[in-house]
Amino acid sequence: MERVPILKIGDILLVSIQLDMSDQTAVQLQEDLAERIVATGCHGVIIDITALDIVDSFVGRMLSTIASISKVLDAETVVVGMRPAVAITLVELGLSLNGIRTALNVERGMELIAAAHADELDYQLDDDPDAETASP
Amino acid sequence: MALSTEESGRLAALLSGQDERVTTRWTEIVTSSLRGRLSQAELRRQVQDLHRAIVSTGEQGIIDLSADSAAELRAALSELSRGRARQGFSATETTVSIFALKDVLAELVQENGGPNALPDYVAFSKLVDEMGLFTFESFVRTRESLIADQAEQLLELSTPVVKLWEGVVAVPLVGTLDSARAQVVMERLLQTLVDTSSPYAIIDITGVPAVDTQVAQHILKTVVAARLMGADCIISGIRPQIAQTIVALGIEFGDIATKASLADALRHVLRLNGVETARRQPRRDA
């Protein structure tokens, strides 16, 4: 069976989908990803769909599921590289991929995750009673 | 509808016998109807081309406008009507060049006389009618292709995507937004977002005369598609009347940022990007 590779870059896991997803591949990817997030302790997942010509409701649901799983494991999911034609089709179909963050390319996706992570750190610092003077 | 071999032969003989006189008279009639908008020399050249085509087709035997043998005649006719259509002449002014041949033929037939004069003239005039219709049709075809070309050019012209800042592109929409244009705008905007990897897009609707539910629907679709790709859209240039219409129609823009002017939208984006904008203080000592 074909498997989608999961690459680790720093604090981020990069998943580049380059084949037509079947039920089995999707389930396998979800399992692999969950395992890798726990094993590596990464805080971000980037799913690259540049190579996908067609995104239907099945792929949409898979992306949502992956995002939910990652959320539970405290990792931010960003879908990157959606083609204009795909975006137009999704809008025409009325699929809005709720709860999924998107970015134009992998680079922007990494920035987005870094920013989200930095916000979180700031927030934790703000909570720190010693840092009271830092913010009004 | 074709002329028989004898009729074609007689027509060719009639026309070629006094070709100088025929072309001169023909040119005269056409010139008077066009009121000097084409030069005498050019008209004469066109008429001579037609004359030559008719004569050479007639000498080959049967004159039938739809047959292969009349290809030269058809080419001459469409050449004429294409030229006239591009120069902005009306359909009447174009076909009159062909129908003028009838007057010339009437004069010639009358002079020659003979027992076949009337049937010949009827047959010739039918052929001229057919040529006129053919000219008219190719005239209309030329005009239609002109209009189609212009519509396409207009579509190209009316949807530029401009780069305002590093990572900020804008689409100034001008004119009514129908489905076809909305599609073109959407595709071009999304493609530009990918090409320039800009995370912000501003849709400026200052030039859109009216916003109804359909136009709003198109804009919303574009914004949602851009969001799916990971870019943010801001709508700017909403005029007071349009704001009232939008509220009256109950159109919901949801959490999409809307700004009154393009400048406000740009300032908003720059602030999101963390770029500080400051008003320059006017110099007092100047």
UniProtKB/TrEMBL annotation, chain A:
<dbReference type="InterPro" id="IPR002645">
    <property type="entry name" value="STAS_dom"/>
</dbReference>
<feature type="domain" description="STAS">
    <location>
        <begin position="2"/>
        <end position="113"/>
    </location>
</feature>
<dbReference type="Pfam" id="PF01740">
    <property type="entry name" value="STAS"/>
</dbReference>
<dbReference type="InterPro" id="IPR051932">
    <property type="entry name" value="Bact_StressResp_Reg"/>
</dbReference>
<protein>
    <submittedName>
        <fullName>RsbT antagonist protein RsbS</fullName>
    </submittedName>
</protein>
<dbReference type="InterPro" id="IPR036513">
    <property type="entry name" value="STAS_dom_sf"/>
</dbReference>
UniProtKB/TrEMBL annotation, chain B:
<protein>
    <submittedName>
        <fullName>RsbT co-antagonist protein RsbR</fullName>
    </submittedName>
</protein>
<dbReference type="Pfam" id="PF01740">
    <property type="entry name" value="STAS"/>
</dbReference>
<dbReference type="InterPro" id="IPR025751">
    <property type="entry name" value="RsbRD_N_dom"/>
</dbReference>
<keyword id="KW-0597">Phosphoprotein</keyword>
<dbReference type="InterPro" id="IPR036513">
    <property type="entry name" value="STAS_dom_sf"/>
</dbReference>
<dbReference type="Pfam" id="PF14361">
    <property type="entry name" value="RsbRD_N"/>
</dbReference>
<dbReference type="InterPro" id="IPR051932">
    <property type="entry name" value="Bact_StressResp_Reg"/>
</dbReference>
<dbReference type="InterPro" id="IPR002645">
    <property type="entry name" value="STAS_dom"/>
</dbReference>
<feature type="domain" description="STAS">
    <location>
        <begin position="158"/>
        <end position="269"/>
    </location>
</feature>
